[in-house]
Predict the 3D structure of the following.
Amino acid sequence: NITDSDPDGRLTVTDKDVKLQEIALAKNEGKELTKEEKQRLRKEKKQHKKNKKDDKGPPEKEKEKEKASVPAPSKPATQSPAHKAAPAPVHASESAAAAEKPAKSKAELRAERRARQDSERTSKHGKKEGGQQSASSKPKATPNELQPVVKRLPEHVQVDDPAALKKLAKKLERQQVPLRSDYGYKVSLFSHLHQYSRKSPPTLQISIPATVIHPSIVRLGLQYSQGIIAGSNARSVALLHTFKQVIQDYSTPPNEELSRDLVNKLSPYISFLSQCRPLSASMGNAIKYIKKEISNIPSQCKEEEAKGKLQACIDSYINEKIILASEAISKYAIEKISDGDVILVYGCSSLVNHILCKAFEKQRKFRVIVVDSRPRLEGREALRRLVKKGIRCTYVLISALSYILPEVSKVFLGAHALLANGYVMSRVGTSQIALVAKAYNVPVLVCCETYKFCERVQTDSFVSNELDDPDDLIVTRNGKSHLENWQTVKSLGLLNLVYDVTPPDFVDLVITDLGMIPCTSVPVVLRVKNVDQ
Amino acid sequence: MEFNVLVEYFRAQIRGDPDVASAVAAIRSLLEFLRRDQSETILGLRENMTQAIRRLEETDSSVAVSSGGELFLRFISLTSLEHPDLSQCKNVMIERGELFLKKISLSRGKVGKLCHTFIKDGAKILTHSSSRVVLKVLENAAADNKRFTVYVTESQPDSAGKRMAQKLRKLNIPVMVVLDAAVGYIMEKVDLVIVGAEGVVESGGVINKIGTYQMAVCSKAHNKPFYVVAESFKFVRLYPLNQQDVPDRFKYTADILKTVKDLNQEHPMIDYTPPSLITLLFTDLGVLTPSAVSDELIKLYL
């Protein structure tokens, strides 16, 4: 191990040197970690990972793949081959689905030995992980067997678990991303979720200039946390454009490979963005796609060429999955709009607005009822766009829903994500609209691009959601702000939910770029998509 | 081959064998059309085939002819038509067409074999109008020495139910004809309801003779199982949201579509039963729940 000398030079006790130290420390604050610090952190990570491996079976989530790939750097001189061996069997067990039978290499034997040692160590410590113990004691012996997949809860739904919080804090500290603290009293049903305040953005603690986090990512995070960019498609497109900028400014450090280093560079950015606002399903899919594209770059590809290729990939993703998809969806949806229709829409969905504008251009005679709700009042934006086109609109608040539904012939809803069990995750209030529409026998059509389909399964709106700033609920009328001092009342909690899930029995039809499918066929589409990839 | 010759051939098929499904007759005619076709290019051939299907739809406006024709076209063109010689390509297409025809001629038998086990000894069955597939199912069940009684609705305006009752009497199955309005009255007596289908739509619902939807609603209210028997060539790429959403070209017979000006005065011949009211669908692809129909359709069409 190469140990660098102390970056501040030899230590002496004089004031001057202490001052110099402080200045140097201040200078180093924003800088990236030195080589030695990086090695130290890497060793910590490896230890951390070893302990984690005994806690649970083979990690199968993206995050774990990241962590596994991070300790596999391309610094051959300083790293012993043991480091490389550790991630290699992890990768093998992760890709166990491929179910190939690799010959037992020396690295795998070493890994088996280490796994055995680890399991003995943890049994000595008496860690209670239940069945996973037996799973971990013989995992590496057959790395090609399909191991029981243990899903780990994502961090953002474990806010009331101190262990998970500590892990998150450590991870963010390692990545040099500021940790955003929760704000205000949380309603007990939702105490497992984060609740942030818009008045304390995560960028307060970032030093200037922030060299660990790219400035356009900082800007994007701020735009997310302040609500300047809102809406599933808008957030994904902004994210992809920012990544294009990041790739443009990226330069491969010496002795590193672009395919591996760039992915590692993206992890702190993604952590930062999820601190600003939890990632949406569409953003998650986009990130998965980018990471796959980056890691598929061949190593002999020149940097400029690789960067150009990646930017072209991102452009084609935006074009195919978002822009062309909305054209295809409009084509199908227009078939379902007949003359004399009264269409109900909720909130502001870019896709539904696009469909209605296209249908109006095609000379369909219909009128629209826009339903809106506090505190976001997004319906006003939709109203603005539709009226500008010349479409006849009516505007009501969601409390008047059962009053106007007898007039309505169809309901068009947008979606934030479509879950694998057919549930529709969308803006809070959507399931209410679907429920009342069902009671009045009005057909409910959900419009959703296929890139928003996600493998998650959820049956209620509690387990995974987003809590918005509770201060948004404070309303000022006639100069008086009720609820202004809600924090002083100990038993009062303000709940500002962002999403809810609608069961598939309330949805009659889902219009995607692949065609019109019933809500129960979402897993079929996911299966077909996975086969394509 | 001229289009009116095609139509004549089709009509002759139906007259010659009244037991054959109209879609099968249509596909036989299309195959003959393909054999006699004189076009020079594959694109021209496809154009002619699509036109032929459209002409057949005009003759017999049932959903099955439309879906059968489209599936036939997809099936024959799904192979690689890379041969430089057009006649070779045509031979490949004709071969595949005959294969398709053979497959679907057997489908009714397959459905019958699947479904008759669901009829228990002593069962009372309610069915609607005249369906050849349901007849086949009941035939198989009777051949299996099961004892059951059948109630058939009269099914106005063409009294097709009475024809069904006659055919069942020939098979020595005890049958009773009831009025369409008596479905609610008779529902508490029956054990299960079996109907055929003219078309199975993407949502898993079915399009069938008018009166089926009523029967489905009644059986749901009485918690009786509602079974639909249909061959797989009846799967069609429609997605109606409600009764109004079914296209006009299926709702009325071909002659009415051609002659009558104001369709609002005419009475539709079919209605749409949503998937929530259907318990199971028996097809030659297997026993499916309504949600699985979409899966099968994606496999068939994509």
Remarks:
- The beta strands of chain B are 123-127, 148-153, 175-178, 192-195, 199-200, 206-209, 226-229, 270-273, 280-283, 286-288.
- Chain B is about 50% helix and 15% strand.
- The CA atoms of residues 14 and 20 of chain B lie 7 Å apart.
- The longest strand of chain B covers residues 148-153.
